[in-house]
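Okay, any thoughts on this one?
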Amino acid sequence: MSDDVVLVVSTQQGDGGADASTARIVRAILEYSRWPKGADPVRLCVIGTAQNADGLDTITLPDGRRVVMRALASEAVDMPGRCDAFYLGAMDLGAMRQWTARARGAAIVTIAERDPQCRSEAMFCLVYRPGTVTFRLNIDAVARSGVRVDPRVLRMAKGG
């Protein structure tokens, strides 16, 4: 387990349940992320079996950029240059760490759906509890990435 500083913020589930809450959090993360060369559209690669990703293919960002979702198998070898963000679905910890290692130093946001302790070293780790979806922000992983994440990402805790 890493010694990363971790912050926890939350959003309440709305009528759409975990899928809608997950999409709102992912949208906010992408909205507050800045890639060195820009990202338009933002290429969101869903890797492995994602349980709460049904709303991800409808995300649009407030600045007009589109989010294009692409599904990859967890054992895929093709990728980094084709993805601006990894959304890691269900897979073992070793596989998640391989994906986050591939993203390290590159301009790729990493979000883990099934790693509440953030042991995968993803930048953001979603945490599902009854009635609430929260996430952990792995500051060290953000610092090691090639993506700038605006500190306003913490506003998501207030429903923004």
About this structure: The chain is about 20% helix and 30% strand. The two ends are 31 Å apart (CA to CA). Confidence is low (pLDDT under 50) at residues 1-7.
